[in-house]
Design brief:
This protein has helices spanning 42-47, 59-63; strands at residues 10-14, 20-22, 24-27, 33-37. It is of the alpha+beta class. The chain has one domain (1-61). Strand 3 and strand 4 form a beta hairpin. It binds zinc ion.
Length: 70
Amino acid sequence: MDNGTFGTRHCNHFNARGERQYTWALYDAQGIYCCRVCDACEEAKVAQYNPVIFAGYTQADVDEPINPEW
Ligand SMILES: [Zn+2]
């Protein structure tokens, strides 16, 4: 049984041994909490976010392209 939703340390995914996957907190490059992920769903959950938030860019970088002339 899980003791609540926020404190849960295991995902709904199972590993090769049939145990629930251990999860960890996913943070963006600014250290902002996103969600908890396990090996099985890390990629899928990361894909739901804008990739730039994991690349260390600030909002100013997003709004102002560094090299606008292609
Ligand atoms: Zn998972």
